[in-house]
Amino acid sequence: MESSLRPQLGNFSSIVCFKSAIVGIEDALGAKTAAIALIAAGRSRGKQLATDLSLKEAIGSLDEVASKLRFALGKDGTRLCIVEKIVQENEVIKVYISESLCSAGEAQGSDRKCTYTLGAVWGAIEQILGRRLQGSHTESVLRGSTYDVFEFTALR
Amino acid sequence: MGLFSWLRQKWSSLDPNLMRSEDSCPLAPSTPPEKPHPETIPVAERDPPEVIQLPIEATVCQPEDAALQPDRPRSSSTPLIHFEFIDPNLVNLIQHWEVLMPVSAANLEGILQNFVSGTSEVQGAALVSPDGLPLATSLPLGMDDERVSAMSAAMLSLGERIGSELARGAIERIAVEGDKGTAVLTSCGQDAVLLVLASPSAKQGLLLLEIKRVLSELKGALSH
Fold it and tell me: Which of A100, B53, B184, B196 could form a disulfide with A81 if both were Cys (CB 3.0 to 4.6 A apart)?
């Protein structure tokens, strides 16, 4: 964990402010443009995170990837989300997430999709596996699922 | 038009009857071809030229054939197609080419590279998915294809938003003109966005024509 970036307030900020920024960007640029930008920002962050933590060298299995990401992004890390598990089904890698930043504070039934969180997990897994992936948010806690689920397939 | 572009145009309507076995391709279809190889027919007896039958003979090899030419990079799922080019009079065999088909990143990349190298004022091009992932790129050195891709998709999306908010209708293209050149973004169907970088001396009309041409080529490749 890096040292405190602010003397009094520390490293954490309110989700309310971050989400206001997202909503404001969506309002100005449109939801699609905002999503592209936030996913790209998340991927960049995820790759950087994986590089900084030398995750690529340390990983032997998807369980280990989940454990490392849970630590880096979870309660003891940046608190972006909790990576519950990562499983592979045929060609698809599924990442199960809870308490994601993107879904926080949203009403049940909201059609909001994870963008930055999806991108961060996406970028980290791409960096760890050394493969280009296509990612999507397929299940949401806002729409009846127990977890937010991100699915990744190899980009051909 | 370059040989490569010409080949790609012809591919879309290639007559499967022209596929034939050949020694260098042991996994090619074993069924004898219905028509004799044009080289074996006396010139006087050859059929009148037909656009598709005239210039191409093709053989489809399976991916395992990659072992025949281990130095040639290809994905494990991409078949290798051998093409023999015969001149318009069906007299001389002039070249033997190989192309990786069907659509793959390498295929799209080939179209872009051909476009960039064959059009003097074009400095680079990228084909991007609507959500900002690079599908194929041929960009100048130093440009990050991931960043360029995300930016391109975002720019076109923003253009569509502007078009909608300002009641400008459907957006055909977006051009950014600077003192060091032009960047033109064009929608390439539902599946892709094309970015083209051109030098300041590029003539706009010609550039748009070239873009239109490569767009149809890319759309054809994407639809396979």
Answer: A100
